[in-house]
Amino acid sequence: LALALDLLRSIEQPTPARIAQLAGDPFPQRLVVHLSWVSNQQGAYTTIRPYTVAVIATRRGGTPGGVEDFVELVFHEPTHAVILPDRGSVSAAIAAAAAEAGEEVPRHLWHALLFYLVGSAVEEQLHRHGWSDYVMYMKRNAVFAAFHDAVFPAMAPYLAGDLALEPAVQQALRGL
Predict the structure, then answer these.
(1) DSSP 78
(2) Cα–Cα distance, 26 to 49 (Å, whole number)
């Protein structure tokens, strides 16, 4: 766990700023992250009212292969207060793209984009700090795999600053 905490400290400032930039919405003013031996079946959860509280299990953070997952999870959970299924810039971009295409909003696209944007931000920071072989959790573990072929190529130009959020989401939706 000590390695995970040292790694977290090295990226704790720029990572939320990058996530907020990518999400198009600021991180919450009041944010509490509880590191606990246990949490729930998924290993973490977040509440957003009356303020954002993330509870994250630490038991894998001290195991080989668990450090990177733990570090990404520490940023993933509070981002649930920034990227939601029914509000925020990402949700608005998804709703606009679906309306333009005359389609229903894909049920879990908001969460797939949360995984992708957080994973990308963490991956960028870890690469800058010498973890050049780090691959985001979503990709390594095939989370929302049905979205990968649409989300990864559509969002890459957005990450690079070559495309705005809404057109990137439109491309992702077309690719589904």
Answers:
(1) G
(2) 16
